[in-house]
Design a protein that fits this description.
The protein is mainly alpha-helical and about 190 residues long. The chain is built from 9 helices and no strands.
């Protein structure tokens, strides 16, 4: 929604959310060539509703990507409300891999946005570093995560795991590698062998 515009009515908000979910599924599984009609149909709305919310294909792709990023980053706060910080951090790692898998599926559609002059990644890194930073700070305060870890380093480690084993058929291995990364976050330099 643009600055100064009115908030969406509840039904319009639901339609927009359904369109974003349908777009993520479509662009991730079918690629950038999926028709906007198919996305609208999957969302249970008409094509006019899609165009009222997203006047171009590129606007829809960018909004779908940013919505996934927002879900990922906001999950840090909600996880911290419901579980201990170290468990919240590990749960967030799973969500990060899911996000990266979706982003990889949307790669061709995102490239089309970039080619048209958009920059869907403008805030991505800073927002993810902020989310990781809040999880690490909570873990350090609770004494369950080491305090000398930089959020950028954790983001790099998570990106490496997602790059190597982010596919659904490798989920068991992904979990093992994320557990290993989490164990490294729990290690303390002052611990005696």
């Amino acid at each position: 929604m643009q600055a100064g515009s009115r908030p969406l009515r509840a039904d319009a908000r639901r339609n927009r959310d359904r369109l974003l979910d349908a777009a993520v599924r479509a662009f991730s599984h079918e690629g950038p060539e999926v028709t906007l009609d198919a996305i609208a149909k999957d969302a249970g709305v008409g094509i006019g509703t899609l165009y009222r919310h997203f006047p171009t294909r590129e606007a829809l792709v960018e909004a779908a990507y940013r919505n996934e990023l927002t879900r990922l980053c906001e999950a840090a706060t909600s996880l911290l409300r419901t579980m201990p910080p170290d468990q919240a951090t590990r749960a967030w790692m799973d969500r990060f891999v899911d996000y990266m898998t979706t982003k990889r599926g949307m790669a061709d559609a995102l490239r089309a946005v970039i080619a048209s002059g958009g920059n869907p990644f403008a805030e991505s890194r800073d927002r993810m570093v902020g989310a990781i930073g809040s999880l690490l700070a909570a873990g350090a305060a609770a004494g369950t995560v080491r305090s000398d870890v930089e959020p950028d380093d954790v983001l790099a480690g998570l990106g490496g795991v997602a790059l190597v084993v982010g596919e659904d058929e490798q989920r068991d291995r992904t979990g093992r590698l994320l557990d290993l990364l989490m164990d490294g976050l729990r290690y303390r330099r002052d611990a005696q062998p």
